Amino acid sequence: MRLLVNGEPTNLEPAPASVAELLAQLRLPVEHVAVELNGEIVTRAERAARTVKDGDTVEVVTLVGGG
Amino acid sequence: MSFTDSPLQLGPVSLASRLIVGTGKYRDLDETADCLRLSGADMVTVAIRRVPPKKDGERSLWDVIPSAMHILPNTAGCYTVEDCLRTARLGRELLGERGRLVKVEVIGDEKTLFPDVAATIEATRVLVQEGFVCLPYVTDDPVACLRLIDVGAAAVMPLAAPIGSGLGIRNPHNLAIILEVVKAKRPDLPVIVDAGVGVPSDAARVMELGVDGVLMNTAIAQASNPRLMAEAMKDGVRAGRAAFVAGRMPMKLYAAASSPLQGLIHAR
After folding, report:
1. Domain annotation for chain A: domains and CATH numbers
2. Is A66 close to B217, i.e. CB distance below 8 A?
3. Distance, in angstroms, between B22 CA and closest chain A CA?
4. What integer pLDDT is reported at residue B56 of this predicted model?
5. Does residue B55 contact residue B3 with C-beta atoms inside 8 Å?
6. Where does B8-246 sit in CATH, by number?
7. Which of B7, B47, B109, B167 has the CA that lies 20 to 30 A from B80?
């Protein structure tokens, strides 16, 4: 499955069934990120049920140092 | 020096320290952690960015912000209302109830990082309607501050000088006018100087003017010894606040002797 993750073309095999699986496959710190799927926020509660499909755009953000 | 100060109230959040510090530009996470602690701050600002590739076991900012500290996500780097709203919403998703506060920042110019005031007011208006507690960063413009209050800002945060410049208080008179007009309209609404402070005397000076708090990042992080500067800034803010509460002496043009004029041993 081809996705655009944080602006990077990313090929994931096997294809993740959900946003939760996508995060696990990318080994992202699930507790410390927020996710947008095609410009829409996917809340923590929705991650397991929300499916992803070929060509989706995903943003995964976290806290960084700032003023 | 001991006096019992009232807390700085930002929406639902009550802060004992009137110094708010940023978490950017430190050399490493140990320095960040030490400076947060030594500053005595109860609230830190953070930015929202794409998650960086991280190696297993590597620490992140999450590991060094004490759980008792309040986190104020900013919308730094946003140039449009839409980007600002999007960033604020992601911050709330990221932080849960802790992310209800947001430092609203919509930049209008890359070189000065001055805010786009119209966009800042519009973003604040929308975010307030969505239930955010908005603390907008704004130019030192009294009218802009009033407009932000009109749309529901929980505080106003005028700059003292451009972000990261360390130039100090470029227009103390505007800050005085902002205090006057804001407090006339809403006596309890905090005015926080955000950006431009370079040294503790800058922080003390604005606190002496009567601002409710100071937010800074670069002045500590880019000092030669950030840990020592964090302590110095804590002292500067405290001294300025105490002086404001104590009330300064009136200024006079001519001298007034401190020692008695009676009992001199020589004739005049």
Report:
1. 2-61 (3.10.20.30)
2. yes
3. 4
4. 66
5. no
6. 3.20.20.70
7. B167
Domain range summary for chain B, segments of one domain joined by +: 8-246
What are B223-232's contacts with CB under 8 Å, separation 24+?
B226/B26, B226/B27, B226/B31, B226/B34, B226/B35, B227/B31, B227/B34, B227/B35, B227/B38, B230/B21, B230/B34, B230/B35, B230/B36, B230/B38, B230/B39, B231/B38, B231/B39, B232/B199, B232/B200
pLDDT tier, B267 (very low <50, low <70, confident <90, very high otherwise): confident
Please give, one letter per residue, the 3-state secondary structure of chain B: CCCCCCCEEECCEEECCCEEECCCCCCCHHHHHHHHHHHCCCEEEEEEEECCCCCCCCCCHHHHCCCCCEEEEECCCCCCHHHHHHHHHHHHHHHHHHHHEEEECCECCCCCCCECHHHHHHHHHHHHHCCCEEEEEECCCHHHHHHHHHCCCCCEEECCCCCCCCCCCCCHHHHHHHHHHHHHHCCCCCEEEECCCCCHHHHHHHHHHCCCEEEECHHHHCCCCHHHHHHHHHHHHHHHHHHHHHCCCCCCCCCCCCCCCCCCCCCC
> What residues in B contact A64, CB-CB < 8 Å?
24, 46-49, 52, 61
pLDDT digits (tens, 9 = 90+) for B169-194: 999 999 999 999 999 999 999 999 99
Integer Cα distance of B188 and A6 in angstroms? 42
Q: Searching chain B, which residue's CA lies closest to the CA of residue A35? A: B90
Least confident of B52-56, B118-122, B161-165: B52-56
- Contacts with B72 (C-beta within 8 Å, 6 or more apart), sequence order: B20, B43, B44, B45, B46, B101, B102, B103, B135
B211-222 average pLDDT score:
98
